[in-house]
Amino acid sequence: MMGMKSFVASGINTLQFATSIGITTTVSSTVNFKYLSFMYWTFRLRVCPTGFPYFDAITLLCYDVCAGGKYMDIPTLQCLPCHYSCQNCTAYLTCVTCDTAAYRALVGSACPPIAGYYDNLTSTAVACNSTFTNCTTCDTIPGVLTCYTCSMGTYLDPITTLCQPCATGCADCTSATQCNICLTGYTVNQSGYCVRPSCTDVNCIICVDPSICNNCTTGYSVVSGACAIVCGDGQLGGT
User: How big is the CA angle at 168 (ends 165 and 169), to the nearest 5 degrees?
Assistant: First the structure.
């Protein structure tokens, strides 16, 4: 125990206090000290036994090997916590295993989030689509959470950086006006829009191309890409 309670210091603005256990405390001010008052300080030196040299300040126990999520810091002989992203580590930022349940995977000596997840400064990564609807890839670089890619049927709006739905009939698009893949029954026109082709069969509702029908009006059924009449008995006409 240090029994000092107060003393006078003149003409200085920084004081250092050294202890027998190697800890130095610095007290500083923007102005020179004239009078300082202290409460009593108590220090305890914990010495771990041979064979269990690493002390854990959380459990107040000594270990031969530190528990998971902590590493053996040789200079201080302590069990210190790994970075929040690591499951196990050999140094604060040197991960050796990652928690797959936290949506992280080992890359070199780091545990970044897997694709479709982002780091929110906690151990468990967060899904991009929980923040941005239909977002498949996102990141917090440079410090702002941003979506980079979207799921099928949506596109990334460069102004809002949000995923917006493709136009009617479009299965995959790069913008509101440029479709890459159309839904069944639609074809891409020269303007990049998906449109239903004009069917040559007057009884056809949806056709793959003008001469091949996919869906017929009531009373007709598709037979070899054409609409055949269905009789009252449910049989195709001519059968």
Answer: 115
Reported as a single tens digit per residue, the pLDDT across 23-76 is 666 767 666 655 555 555 555 666 889 999 999 999 999 999 999 999 999 998
Q: Burial, 98: exposed, middle or buried (Cβ in 10 Å; 0-12, 13-18, 19+)?
A: buried
Q: Are 180 and 187 contacting, i.e. CB atoms less than 8 angstroms apart? A: no
Cα–Cα distance for residue pair 52/153, rounded to 1 Å: 59
Tell me the residue type at 101: A
What would the two tokens of residue 182 be? 């159309």
Phi, psi of 202 (to 5 degrees): -65, -20
What's the Rg (C-alpha) of the chain? 35
69, 88 Cβ separation under 8 angstroms: yes
Name residues whose C-beta falls within 8 Å of residue 169's C-beta, 6 or more positions apart in sequence.
Answer: 179, 182, 183, 185, 186, 193, 194, 195, 196
Predicted structure pTM score: 0.62
Which tokens is 111 given?
């545990």
